[in-house]
Fold these 2 entries.
Entry 1:
Amino acid sequence: MKLNDPDRPETKVALELRGVSKSYCSESGSLVQALDGVGLTVQEGEFVVLIGPTGCGKTTLLNIAAGLLAPDSGQVLLGKGLRQGDNIPCVFQHYTLFPWRTLLHNVTFGLEMRSIARHDRNDTARALIAKVGLSGFEGAYPHELSGGMRQRGAIAQALAIKPKLLLMDEPFGALDDYTRMELQQMLIDLWQESQITVLFVTHNIDEAVVMGDRVIVFSERPGKVIKKLQVKLSRPRRGLSQEFTKVLVELRQSLGGYVWPGE
Ligand SMILES: Nc1ncnc2c1ncn2[C@@H]1O[C@H](COP(=O)(O)OP(=O)(O)OP(=O)(O)O)[C@@H](O)[C@H]1O
Ligand SMILES: [Mg+2]
């Protein structure tokens, strides 16, 4: 089966999920259906945001896309150069840097696994650390960094292997508003520079509109796609322009039953 359509060579698919369903068996023996027939396509270079109520299966979906979890049914198709469980990093909400490694050696980790020479991996890591605004902290351990700095480090760590596809699970969810805004802009700059494909989960409606080329809205559990919204606003998307508010309201309405009960 061909993932990319030969009749439309201008559009290349990085990730496609077809009819993906997943249930878990809890320790008490009951069955919880997390995902129900999810279909989703992410084009190369696109920044796609997933938003939906808590427990609707967003993390489950990212784990399936990364190859960390197998779906019960359905298919996960990857674009050129992508291999599950190998070169699709995921940045999580809770800081994932190795506590026993310095920042530099956290960022070099993926390159060590790929047997890149020490000199080259240190150069690559230092350049990325500078890009995420952490120059001078190469020798620091994670506990010596603030939450925002650790997330900058986690992004540098994920980018070190030059991934084509980056998965992000509420990466800024634990940060204060100011730090969140700074990191949103930093991520958009890195994404625009590298043209990497990003699949980004958030709970935050404003963040979804600031970040996404497209926003995919999930239903309550079992999660399924209930809306796909193209966001055509120019970047940077700060400020409450009329156009921004319009998209925000549309998204808010599609989530309305859950986020603002009674509206
Ligand atoms: N390992 C597991 N064993 C049993 N049930 C699980 C497991 N992982 C997730 N679930 C259940 O699957 C459902 C979806 O979980 P998931 O973590 O994917 O949701 P989510 O959309 O990421 O939620 P949140 O927004 O709160 O992070 C939840 O009801 C959860 O309890
Ligand atoms: Mg989650």
Entry 2:
Amino acid sequence: MIVVDEEHENSYKQQNPDPRYNARDIAIVLATIHKCKIILGSATPSVESYYNADSGKYHLVELGERYGKVELPKIQIVDIKDGYRRKIMKSHFHPVLYQAIEEALNNNEQVVLFQNRRGYAPYLECKDCGWVPQCDNCNVSMTYHKYGNQLVCHYCTDKKHIYYRCESCGSTNLTTKGLGTEQIVDEVYELFPTARVTRLDQDSAGSRKRFEKIIKDFENHNTDIIVGTQMVTKGLDFENLTLVGILNADNMLNFPDFRAFERSFQLLSQVSGRAGRRQKQGKVIVQTYTTNHLILKQVLENDFDGMFRSQLPERKAFKYPPYWNFIIIRLRNKDKQKLYKTANLLAENLRKDLYQRVLGPEEPLVNMVKRYFLLNIHIRFEKKISSIKIKKLIIDNLQQIAENKELASTKYEIDVDPL
Ligand SMILES: [Zn+2]
Ligand SMILES: [Zn+2]
């Protein structure tokens, strides 16, 4: 028997290098080859897997109660728009969250604070002219890291010294925008001077060893508060953790991706599940500007089924999985003109057979990385069309381009079922 636990996890998908496979899906193929049983486990299944269970392709087994009969945590949604308007916020903390942290610390309990952004602030901005430092290699603003005092590009890892003067107008009136884990740590030190705080993100826990040390220190209660990115959601169980605070749910919900709502539900539910263990019901406080968001209501009511059913019509209408197969062809070239020429030709040729199933080429949100210009072609096709046929068509067309001397410099990658 094969067991794939936390089957919804993104980390099952290999992004780079080739092959871009999803280990969960490969496990299903493997089980089919060996005619063995397979179990996909998750408290927050992927829409694709749950759809297979819902439509009878998979058999569904539900666990009606939590392990050890622990009560679900009490979730509270807090309106930070109102908090800022009434000027009652303490830095980025609503009084409700602030008081809950204070109470937990007084009871000698532990706290996890979640913010899905590393660094100090997503970017630096000139207050006088709006100038924002950009990466020289990528078309993206650089993230301000106070630790090490530098600007870092999260796409190519290029670093720059911090600017003290605006490069555009010379003003020294620079400010940070947005909120990252480093800044939250600073604020916690200021608001709770006696608390022992640690940070858990890619920068502080890049290696296995450092990750384990941070976890161990928390387990042994050498630290009181962890401030972390989604690294804190990964199945960690702490006996003494009673409070989870989510600093800002909106940047997840507003992420421009068809899976943003599903992911937000999974992430918020998973991080909430960390709070409260055997002896005590945990508490989760979610700070947001949009208190009436449907996904937040579903997280509040632990309503996975509701989330699933509310997502399906949109997936169907906009031709996304689980109803349609989805392939992205990502093209890149340092020569923008050549890139456009290749991409347009490829899309045109594919359209001869696939018609409106081919979308683009279009520029991704970040349209230049490591000095390569980027274009994507999307192919979405009905489940009843043979994937083998589509595969052959794509390969034949790419072959044609490879044989064209002028266009051959364009590099490509093919991502089937992209995340
Ligand atoms: Zn300026
Ligand atoms: Zn860069």
